[in-house]
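Review form for a predicted model. The reviewer records the input and the model, then writes brief findings.
Reviewer: anonymous (R2)
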Amino acid sequence: MAKTLATNDARGRLLMAGRVMAGLDQDQLARRSGVSAATISNIERGNGGRDETISSIRSALRKSGVSVLWDTKNGLASVSLVYEKPDSEE
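Model under review:
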């Protein structure tokens, strides 16, 4: 079966890729997102999670400089580094 963003497995892999790009282990991401490391592990293994939990994880990744985006309507997804100018350059 092909992986689509409609599957929890595909979303879990995207979030894992984001965590790795941010240089975080599951415990660090758990602390930053306010969820347990077991929850991070479960989601990354494709067991799904509540929308609020996924949002907290994505927010923590964004604050760590990684954006994880997906659109279930068209199947597009991206995991990217987010660069912001330091305050002294504005």
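Findings: Residues 61 and 67 are 7 Å apart (CA to CA).
Further findings: The chain is about 50% helix and 10% strand.
Recommendation: see findings above.
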